[in-house]
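User: I'm preparing a small set of examples for a lab meeting where we compare how different chains pack in three dimensions. I only have the primary sequence for this one, and I'd like the structure in token form so I can line it up with the others. Please keep the answer compact; I'll paste it straight into my notes.
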Amino acid sequence: MTDTELVDQAKRGDRSAFESLLRRHHPRLVSICSRILGNRADADDAAQNALISIVRNLESFDGRSSFGTWAHRIAANAALDELRRTRRRPTPDDGRRLDHAPSRDLAAVVDARLTLRTHLAELPEDFREAVVLRDVLDLEYEEIASLLGVPIGTVRSRIARGRARLAESIDGGNLRAHDERQTQADEAGSNMP
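Assistant: Understood. Below is the structure token output for the 193-residue chain.
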């Protein structure tokens, strides 16, 4: 069944249709919250709050956008609310890595994602929110401005500055790693007879 059919049935009181709808979208809602918050525990809390909000507000869903878009906006709002609640709370890096990855490609993809998540978490909150909403959730500038309660010009500025800092952080890390490897190689070479 399509989302539209499930929504119609859920609005008429069909509990199984409602549960199917929520089950279908739950993984994406958690993913959205996780990308905004950078912390799985907080993301789970925000996703749970989003589900509660969806349950409470389904009757007000008017179908002008798809159910998925509507639910994703609710999840983004829940994540932003959670971010404001936990503002400036340090998030420990769990340091998990794939030491026994089945292939180098998988390990490289996982490592790249962990690296990106780490760099995103280092951005100032205002920049991270704007970059994630635009580049991860693919929201329009007007939608982001509405969600954040700021003018569109501020959204554009935050995205541009956030992207620049993210690029600088990632490139800087690559340059530092290269410089460290080069220094070690130079030192090893100078110790040879």
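A couple of notes for your slides: The radius of gyration is 21 Å. The helical segments are 3-11, 15-37, 40-57, 67-85, 104-122, 125-136, 141-148, 152-190.

User: Perfect, thanks.
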